[in-house]
Amino acid sequence: MRRILTGLLCALLMACTADDSISRAYRCTFIFDTTLHPLPCQLTGILGNSGHFSKVQTYVAADGIRHLKTTRNYDGATEDVALTTARESQISFSLGAGDCIIIGTNSYDNILVAYDGQCPNCLADYNGTSYPLTWQNNGQQLHCAKCDRSYDVNNGVVANGPSGRKELLRYMAAFDGSVLRAWN
Fold it and tell me: Which of 8, 98, 105, 160 reaches 20 to 30 Å from 92, CA-CA?
């Protein structure tokens, strides 16, 4: 009887923590310490600001240092952030399907959200991961040039274009006051 109750309790806890809206198709692991990159860092600046989002991509420069390239939604401004501390160099990044995520605070209910930077419909319909989303409509939508769909950045749903998968691939996102994270 004790085993049955323990098994039921474990099953109940797993059911409560599972979130079907979180994509697990592509690995996402992103950690950014805003105390190491205070304002005017663009990525730090979008946090807590309703409707402000940033496209985040990562690359390793010729000198071996990892960088983040960010592009803000509301003005298209870009920034290159070098991750130079010993702590940052220990972090392994995976940014979804095409090594790009979109992260920010939605303007509907002021919640931090993270999306994959690739079109989910094209990922499902075609091989490869070459379907990047670009800012459109003053940064309020993400557009795919391949299928001509646009997604509302605040809720991730198709705003314009053909029917199909209705939402962007979503990842969990959290900010604890100093560390910004996105993961699945």
Answer: 105
